[in-house]
Design a protein that fits this description.
The complex is a heterodimer of chains A (328) and B (282).
Chain A: E1 6-9, H1 16-24, E2 30-33, H2 37-40, H3 47-50, E3 56-59, E4 67-68, E5 79-83, E6 86-87, E7 92-93, H4 98-101, E8 107-110, H5 113-125, E9 131-135, H6 145-148, H7 150-159, E10 164-170, H8 176-180, E11 187-193, H9 196-202, E12 203-204, H10 209-222, E13 225-233, H11 239-253, E14 261-266, E15 268-270, H12 271-280, H13 285-288, E16 291-294, E17 297-300, H14 305-315, E18 324-326
Parallel strand pairs in A: 1-2, 1-3, 3-8, 5-9, 9-10, 10-11, 11-13, 13-14, 14-18
Antiparallel strand pairs in A: 4-5, 6-8, 7-12, 15-17, 16-17
Helix pairs in contact in A: 11-14
Chain B: E1 8-14, H1 17-27, E2 30-31, E3 38-40, E4 45-49, H2 53-66, H3 68-72, E5 76-88, E6 96-104, E7 107-111, E8 121-127, E9 140-142, H4 145-152, E10 161-169, H5 180-189, H6 191-212, H7 216-224, H8 229-244, H9 248-256, H10 262-281
Parallel strand pairs in B: 1-4, 1-5, 5-10, 6-8, 8-9
Antiparallel strand pairs in B: 2-3, 3-4, 5-9, 6-7, 6-10
Classes of the chains: A alpha/beta (328), B alpha/beta (282).
Chain lengths: 328, 282
């Protein structure tokens, strides 16, 4: 894993995880900064240029570390929360809202995991019903495991808190660390998939479908709970046949009966993020397509309810409805 | 003013005529009319010679911005590169260092150039007002970089504003040994690296400019009818969508059928893009 530079906030320069990461990237120039915002939040940066050679920023997360998850974000009952130990993703998916949300393509890794853990404990203790904690909202949770040690830190933590569930969202095949642990019942590894053609076209740097399915199979066989997220669905001519093929490929490798959950979700993002994406990629076909807007969210005009229902019908021939939810 | 990808410049900024000399040769730069410190090539490279120190640099930028040429020029310079000699405690004379942090001895606020350029050495450039003879910090000591950054931000793209320093003095060979011949030798030895940096910046600048450039058919429309700012933005994006969706010929056909006003045209283009979705769904 190569970075063009490593920026380190002075306050966490001596943190154990910082020191470990520096040792791993010893060839990379290190620059000391006061707060990550002085590099990450500057006006006038170009995400597209920076994405060619992103830097890693090691920082401390201040303030609230755990936030309520958006309505309909996950499958589980109970109170949903998300936490972002990292901002931005190794991959370069053209539909990704992160490009429209952040000014910089550099990766920010908040190394003070102890504060995230304290935030998780605080939320779990203040709610009598079950709690679910989602990771991977603003990043890919597994893709940078050799650097971030995310699973290495959080799996043992959740192993001691069986009443709280951890859902890890990813497109990565980086599952070695998980396989080294005994599976825990309260952790779900959720992988996102799009049809092979869509993945090749828009999911740059993402491991191919077959490799990701094999990684999920290994996890499933080892006893980990796994989930499949068919999203974002991008409506276009021939998409139903593409999904039929994807469902068939997926459930010929993974045991549908042992899946934790399956979901479908449309390509949609806040209108302002879409506007920012268009500025970055005016030459991208996906972003030039006709859109519709509801409550500030944009989706493709070629998608919509009818397409999702048609895909659901096909999906239910592979998966029991009880395991399914539609991602809001 | 229409934006065209053909009009991209990389501007090099140096302090000394001795630094400018080798660059004028590498890039075949010619003096720009009505100036005595600006040189330009027909390959999209411009050189600004500012004089030593922050004040001179600020004056040079301001003076250039006031020239008739700068006002008339349709060329934009998203990429700016400060090249110059500097002292360093550890690096050998002749080594090149790309700045990843630019500080100023009299201002607390550092700047962080985006790591775009590849080099053997990266580090902090510390701008001072007098030549530094003892090199107390592990940094390249120069006299302009910090002012350069502040000024270039007014004209260029943040990610394409870069600074690289050629080491001219260190504890083993002090500033008293720097001569025009030494500077010429250092610059000539670094010519390959300098050219690589300039080429990369030019490619990135060109790519960005190309992305921002106006579609040809939009320019035709803008020539033909009056567009207010909103109409211009809307019609430009609609044209861009036709091009991106590989429907340029359809756009041409729509324009050929005629339209009465900007509002009328906006409606026609929108309807056409919408109706294509229905066809796809069917």
């Amino acid at each position: 894993m190569k970075f063009s530079a490593v920026y380190i906030e002075r306050a966490i320069a001596e943190h154990e995880l910082t020191q470990r990461i520096i040792a791993r990237v010893s060839e990379t120039p290190v620059i000391t900064i006061d707060r990550y915002g002085e590099v990450f939040n500057r006006a006038g940066q170009n995400f597209r240029i920076q994405k060619r050679a992103p830097a890693l920023i090691l920082a401390k997360k201040h303030g609230k570390t755990v936030l309520p998850a958006p309505e309909g974000y996950g499958f589980e009952q109970g109170r949903g929360f998300y936490f972002s130990h990292m901002l931005n993703c190794l991959y370069d998916c053209r539909y990704c809202f992160l490009q429209g949300m952040y000014r910089s393509a550099h990766y920010v890794l908040f190394v003070n995991y102890e504060d995230f853990m304290a935030g998780i404990d605080a939320e779990a203790l203040s709610h009598d019903e079950g709690t679910v904690f989602y990771s991977g909202y603003d990043c890919d949770s597994l893709a940078m495991e050799p650097i971030s040690a995310f699973c290495e830190s959080f799996i043992p933590f959740f192993a001691n808190r069986p009443a709280s569930i951890l859902e890890v969202r990813t497109k990565s095949t980086q599952v070695r660390q998980l396989l080294d642990f005994q599976p825990i019942d309260n952790c779900v590894v959720a992988m996102s998939f799009t049809p092979e053609a869509a993945s090749k076209r828009w999911e740059h740097k993402v491991p191919n479908l077959s490799k990701r399915l094999q990684a999920m199979k290994k996890l499933q066989r080892s006893g980990w709970k796994i989930a499949v997220r068919f999203e974002p669905v991008i409506g276009e001519a021939g998409v139903e046949a593409e999904y039929e093929r994807l469902f068939s490929q997926t459930f010929s490798v993974l045991s549908a009966d042992e899946l934790h959950s399956v979901s479908l979700g449309e390509f949609r993002l806040p209108a302002q993020f879409h506007k920012n994406l268009v500025k970055l990629y005016p030459d991208e076909d996906l972003l030039a397509r006709e859109t519709v807007q509801h409550d500030g969210m944009l989706s493709l005009a070629a998608g919509g309810e009818a397409l999702l229902e048609a895909l659901e019908d096909r999906l239910f021939s592979y998966v029991d409805r009880s395991r399914y939810y539609r991602c809001a | 003013m229409p934006i065209s990808s053909e009009s991209v410049l990389v501007t090099l900024v140096v302090a000394l005529p001795a630094e400018a000399g080798p660059l004028k040769n590498f890039f075949q730069l010619k003096p720009l009319r009505a100036t005595n410190n600006v040189f330009q090539s027909d390959q999209g490279i411009r050189l600004l010679v500012t004089g030593v120190g922050r004040k001179n640099l600020n004056h040079s930028f301001a003076r250039f911005a006031r020239t008739e040429f700068a006002k008339e020029s349709q060329q934009v310079s998203p990429a700016w590169l400060n090249i110059g000699i500097a002292g360093h405690r550890e690096l050998a004379v002749g080594e090149m260092m790309v700045a990843n942090k630019i500080s100023c001895a009299v201002s607390a606020q550092p700047s962080f150039p985006t790591p775009v350029l590849s080099a053997n050495h990266y580090g902090e450039v510390l701008t001072v007002d007098e030549p530094e003879l003892t090199y107390p910090q592990n940094a390249a000591y120069d006299m302009e970089a910090h002012a350069f950054w502040d000024m270039a931000l007014n004209y260029g793209m943040l990610d394409l504003i870069q600074c690289c320093k050629l080491i001219s003095d260190n504890p083993h060979g002090g500033v008293e040994k720097i001569t025009t011949a030494v500077i010429d030798e250092i610059f000539c030895a670094a010519s390959y690296e300098i050219r690589q940096h300039v080429d990369l910046l030019r490619n990135l600048a060109y790519e960005q400019q190309h992305l921002m450039s106006d579609p040809a058919l939009y320019l035709e429309i803008a020539d033909r009818i009056h567009l207010n700012v909103n109409q211009a933005l809307q019609i430009r994006r609609l044209c861009q969508r036709f091009v991106t969706l590989n429907r340029e010929s359809e756009l041409e056909a729509l324009l050929a059928t005629g339209y009465h006003s900007a509002r009328d045209l906006t409606q026609i283009l929108r309807e056409s893009l919408k109706s294509a979705v229905k066809v796809t769904e069917e």
